Amino acid sequence: MGLSDTLSARFDVEEHGSDIRTELIAGLTTFLAMSYIIVVNPFILAEAIQIPGYEFFEVVQMIAIATVLSAAVATLVMAVYANRPFGLAPGLGLNAFFAYTVVLGLGIPWQTALAAVFVEGVLFIILTIVGAREYVIRLFPEPVKRSVGAGIGLFLLFIGFQELQIVVPDETTLVTLGGIFGNPWAILGVLGLVLTFVLWARNVTGAIVLGILTTSLAGWGLTLAGFFERGTVTPETLPSAQYDITPLAGAFVDGLANIDPLTFGLVVFTFFFVDFFDTAGTLIGVSQFGDFLDDDGDLPEMDRPLMADAIGTTFGAIVGTSTVTTFIESSTGVEEGGRTGLTALVVAGLFLASLAVIPVVAAIPEYASFIALIVVGVMMLQGLVEVDWSDPAWAVSAGLTVTVMPFAYSIADGLAAGIVAYPIIKVATGEASDVDLGQYVIAALLAAYYVLQTRGVIL
């Protein structure tokens, strides 16, 4: 039995309607779509993590290594234990909360913030073992489960439009159309987007990968030919790898000393809340897109991918990075046909390989990688056909789930809006008995949380 046969048997590739080549391409696609985190996460966290005796860019390199290691470990667990094609890494938004709110805003030492992430991860492991996380997610109303994929799609579109500078901030309307054809970054992004859509429409295998690579090569070609200076359509500098992370790894232990229990508890709770619902939304949304959900809108054996997320968060805190979560960019690999853990295994392997070629990974311009978000965002809107728009409870719950995500810039907030709305409309239409007791409880807890959170009582 050859290697391909062994892998096919280990991950049940054929049983999932896939093949080795498709899984490999899907893994490469997912990695390219989420590889930007290797560069973005360190620069965000390095604003808050200051280590005596080390310069800013040295700390950036330490965090880059921690980012890669945590992503590789979490995704490896997803591959081997859960057999799902999902990639994991330190999450955007959670790292910004870590750096700007907890450390820089509240003045909490970064070591203590890492300790909070560690505690959160351990709690997730325990709750996953006893089945509590899966139980809560299964209580999500069905219209929320059926619409979350489209909500994530709109969220992806909004992120992609901003990163390509197709949409820019506006003082009057908050956002508006950017000066696309006066901006080389946006021009290349739009042209790459057109190419990718054309390849996808013609059913070209690996369309998203080809779009990313072609756009990247075009940017570098124009730069090397002298049309643009470095830093215009290509990264201005390419960092060299540094592998010594001993000043960062294990720092969470020091963070557990001399903590204020109330403040520390609030920080842990906020990390816990956002990560719980972000992960739940991503898993359901990407699973819906890949047709992994059962007839009730649930992901079979959900506890396994949830455990990968929990282990990744715990390990990430140990090596020195913020909360690890399932990435919405996993949908890019699912679109390419990834259906098993072999896709995730490829992603984990590529993360480890990037330790040796971090400058090459960093050479991919951000506008090239964000093309994937727009393409997949459009594709994920097809989930809206599964919503019964003639039912008021479905229409309101699904509508809020889909729209609040991009407007609030949060998967968790979109889920919460749909979950709270569902029992309210069911009661209003005289169908209160259709709502489980657990759904009422979750809705009430979420409503209370947002009252306190928006009043500034809690973080």
TrEMBL record:
Transmembrane portions of the chain: 24-44, 56-81, 88-108, 114-136, 148-168, 180-200, 207-228, 264-286, 306-328, 340-361, 367-385, 397-425, 437-452
Pfam (any one): Xan_ur_permease
Listed GO biological process terms: purine nucleobase transmembrane transport
Keywords associated with the record: Cell membrane, Membrane, Transmembrane, Transmembrane helix, Transport
GO cellular component, one term: plasma membrane
Membrane-topology annotation of the record: Multi-pass membrane protein
Major localization listed first in the record, in broad terms: membrane
InterPro entries hit by this protein: Azg-like, Azg-like_bact_archaea, NCS2
Location within or outside the cell: Cell membrane
Entry's family note: Belongs to the nucleobase:cation symporter-2 (NCS2) (TC 2.A.40) family. Azg-like subfamily.
Listed name of the protein: NCS2 family permease
